[in-house]
Amino acid sequence: MKIYNIKKLNINIINRFSVFLLLLLLVCSCSQNKKENEVAVETGFCLNDFMKDDILKVAVVKKPISESILLNANVESNPDKTVHFVSLVSGVITKTYFTLGEEVKKGQLLLEMMSSELSSLSSQKLSVQSQILVAQRELESVQEMHNDKIASQRDLIEAQSNLDVLKAELQNINAQLNLFSGSSDRGVFQVKAPSTGTVISKNVAPGMQISAESDPLFTISDLGEVWIMANIYAGNIPYVKKDMPVEITVDAYPDALFSGKINSISQVFDSNERVLKARILMDNSDRKLMPGMLVDAKVEKEDGVLANAAPINALIFDDNHYFLVFYKSDCEIEIRKVIPNVQNSTHVFFENSIEEGEQIIVKNHLLIYNHLKALK
Predict the structure, then answer these.
(1) CATH number of residue 64's parent domain
(2) Distance CA 21, CA 29 (A)
(3) Lower CB density within 10 Å: C or N end of the chain?
(4) For residue 134, what is the domain's CATH number?
């Protein structure tokens, strides 16, 4: 009877121990699953003085959800600051003094050309100058006769009128010669820059024959201000508005960001490209934007829905998941797995997983993340 009791007691102890082991395994398993789901590490780590001085924290804020819209665009010269030079005379280009893309000053000599019209104008000038001398003598003679009561007032007026007509003709000839800086000694017209700016097109070369009022010989534009012409596709028309801020990026300057705003939107749909054209007036005092460049124009579309937002640079992508580093105190730093909803160039929006007012580390957060991850 005594032996039976001992056996019974041993069986009870074994059963209880088995149940204890089973419960212990379940607790450990749940604890492990919880850690895997939350991915939170904060034990045994505190920010030292160096880290505290070198981190930056921001609070989660509630903002209207905005989404980036990317518009294809290209740089154009400002037509209001562009001069297309068209020759008023025919001739042959003898020499050019400028190149495409060169900065020129107003009055700078650009080219010379020979023209039969120069000889004609020079002959006309000499002829008119001779006629003016004759007309002046005639006027003086009529004036004396008028004083002596021999010539009438009408004769005096006609003599004066003839002289005025000849002077006007001479003035017109001089204007034509000055327009092209005609040099009778060298027998060439000299074309000078009509304005200060950059030569954005050149259609002349030595030996080329040109005709009056042909295509522009060259084009000069002040590139201190340029136009960005952006394409708005049909699906984005409701979201792109006049005066919206725009961010311009260019492949040639990957680290540069140009800011502007939409000045006007065409009201005529381009049936060939199937787009609306938006014009962005850009300051270009550093001359980085050049006509013909392809650029990207980015605007932000707001849908009015509020959501909790964090700076886009706070996100950490690791092992096919996104994480944020949350700060509660110097010894309470949490890594939290998050699921972004919408993001734009500056912020990322969440439906849940973060709360308004929570502190997020946005500078040196990757260093802290790697350190905490190593403590797991």
Answers:
(1) 2.40.420.20
(2) 12
(3) N
(4) 2.40.50.100
Query: Model confidence over 284-315: pLDDT tens digits?
Result: 999 999 999 999 999 988 777 888 999 999 99
| Residue 170 and residue 136 share a domain | yes
53-58: average pLDDT: 87
Per-residue pLDDT at 139 exceeds 90: no
Report the C-alpha dihedral over residues 358, 364, 369, 375, rounded to 10 degrees: -120
Q: Are 195 and 238 in contact (CB under 8 A)?
A: no
Helix or strand (DSSP H, E) at 283: strand 275-283
The dihedral over CA atoms of 198, 246, 363, 350, expressed in degrees to the nearest 10, equals -160
pLDDT given for residue 200 in this prediction: 94
The residue range of the domain holding 261 is: 73-79+223-296
| 16 in the same domain as 121 | no
Last residue of a domain, one of 221, 242, 275: 221
Total tally of structural domains belonging to the chain: 4
Question: Among the residues of the chain, which ranges form H helices?
Answer: 2-38, 49-53, 116-147, 153-179, 365-374
Sign for the pseudo-dihedral over CA of 79, 213, 127, 189:
positive
**What gap in Å lies between CA 223 and CA 324, rounded to an integer?**
45
Note whether 342 and 323 are same-domain residues: yes
d(CA 166, CA 131): 7
Please indicate, yes or no, whether residues 136 and 206 belong to a single structural domain of this protein.
yes
pLDDT tens figures, 202-218: 999 999 998 877 789 99
94 with 215, same domain: the answer is yes
Amino acid found at 46: C
* Arithmetic mean of pLDDT, 66-84: 91
Stretch 78-90: mean pLDDT, rounded?
89
Distance CA 141, CA 155 (A): 11
Question: Which tokens sit at 244?
Answer: 């919206």
The whole-model pTM stands at: 0.59
pLDDT at 31: 44
- pLDDT beyond 60 at 27: no
pLDDT of res. 28: 47
**Average model confidence (pLDDT) for the chain?**
82
